[in-house]
Automatic annotation (TrEMBL):
PANTHER family: ARGININE EXPORTER PROTEIN ARGO, ARGININE EXPORTER PROTEIN ARGO-RELATED
One of the record's GO molecular function terms: amino acid transmembrane transporter activity
Membrane topology, from the record: Multi-pass membrane protein
Keyword Signal belongs to the record: yes
UniProt KW keywords: Cell membrane, Membrane, Signal, Transmembrane, Transmembrane helix
Single biological process term from Gene Ontology: cysteine export across plasma membrane
Organism: Marinomonas aquiplantarum
Top-level taxon: Bacteria
Name of the molecule in the record: Threonine/homoserine/homoserine lactone efflux protein
Any Gene Ontology CC annotation: plasma membrane
Record field: transmembrane: 42-62, 74-91, 141-166, 178-195
Signal sequence residues: 1-15
Cellular compartment(s): Cell membrane
Amino acid sequence: MTLSLIISMSLFALAASLSPGPVNLLSLSCSARYGAKAGLNFVTGASLGFILLFLLIGFSLHQILDVLPQLTNILKWLGAGFLFYLSFQLWRDQGDLSIHQNQSAPRFMTGAILQWINPKAWLASVSGIAVYIPNADTNDILIFAGLYLPICWLSLGAWVAMGILLGQYFQSPAKMRWLNRSLATLLAGSSVYILI
């Protein structure tokens, strides 16, 4: 594998991971509301969940999707439905900053599972593999995944940092409600965009 291909894969991973999407918005929301520890826990689960999905697609699933293209549509609609549900829950949150807030913080497994129903994660995996390693060579898949993991984690970590900064400003329930509803609207909008 050439250095130029590694750089190109890294730039693709950065663009796919850093661009706004459902997991990015939830990383921001989680850290604004629950702090750095909860945000990083969620991000770590999301990053590892994505890499497992990426490896599965790289080693076998892209062949299944070639044979059953309608599976992509089913996954897209299921994922969008779940994202609408998450945006509804975020919209309903009253912004109460009580001492019991850590009980409802998104967890590691929430992040991991969310990537498996996140249409953006599926598209990033399938398109990245199709463009950069269409022959799905084992070593190339492992190298790409090895590049993607830290880039994904750091990119989502940047959203956590933004959330922490916003969380310092949004210390009242009214301001937190405004932030939650703004993020819920963006999350719902990203779901609609996925379906178009």
